[in-house]
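Summary of Year 1 activities. Much of the first year was spent building the evaluation harness for sequence design. The harness presents a backbone, in tokenized form, and records the residue chosen at every position. We chose the following record to illustrate the format because it has been used consistently in internal testing since the harness was completed.
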């Protein structure tokens, strides 16, 4: 038998074809050189809800994103693909207000009524633009119970009673979650 270089991802199955970072860069460069701003706008049906224009952003003095452009329409899903360290998370961090933005704009909203959120910090982004950033994992408060985590999700609501009411609606919908309401969130599934 020939050597099989099977690489396991998150320990759920595997992938038997892995392309190198250089290959990804070459493919991205091919795509990147051809995509115009008009094409990006057309992909968002010329009615974007999120617009990132000419963004230069990074951490401290280090610039990670160079003249980055993106548009997404309401209800659209967007998948960012790129090698580790390419800056995918940095795009999300920039929207949410976690990065240092050197240049460019981030606008959110329908039609002409877009709000410029470029300069907003994470707290303001959540409060003023109602944008939340949900991490792939480790996005719960591990030492709080499942139900307390849900109450936290309602912290922008007018009263704690309203937050609890909303949590009850979630429990009514998801039995498995309701059965674990007093378990600590870190205990997982
Ligand atoms: N909090 C941070 N502070 C400093 N540098 C960071 C931070 N987060 C990411 N970086 C750097 O920014 C670059 C892009 O990282 P990232 O956006 O996480 O890439 P991806 O999500 O595509 O894997 C990498 O060089 C990474 O080391
Ligand atoms: Mg990432």
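For this record, the design step produced the sequence shown next.
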């Amino acid at each position: 038998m020939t050597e099989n270089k099977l690489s396991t991802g998150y320990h759920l199955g595997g992938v038997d074809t892995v392309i190198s970072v250089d290959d990804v860069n070459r493919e991205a460069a091919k795509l990147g050189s051809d995509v115009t701003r008009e094409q990006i706008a057309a992909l968002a049906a010329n009615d974007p809800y999120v617009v990132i224009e000419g963004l230069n952003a990074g951490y401290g003095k280090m610039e990670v994103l160079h003249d980055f452009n993106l548009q997404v329409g309401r209800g659209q899903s967007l998948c960012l693909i790129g090698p580790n360290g390419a800056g995918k998370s940095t795009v999300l961090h920039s929207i949410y207000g976690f990065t240092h933005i050197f240049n460019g704009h981030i606008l959110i909203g329908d039609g002409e009524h877009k709000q410029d959120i470029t300069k907003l910090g994470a707290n303001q982004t959540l409060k003023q633009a109602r944008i939340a950033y949900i991490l792939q994992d480790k996005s719960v408060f591990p030492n709080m119970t499942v139900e307390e985590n849900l109450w936290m999700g309602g912290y922008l609501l007018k009263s704690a009673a309203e937050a609890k009411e909303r949590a009850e609606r979630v429990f009514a919908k998801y039995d498995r979650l309701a059965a674990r309401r007093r378990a600590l969130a870190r205990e997982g599934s």
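The mean pLDDT is 86. Quantitative recovery figures across the full test set are reported in Table 2.
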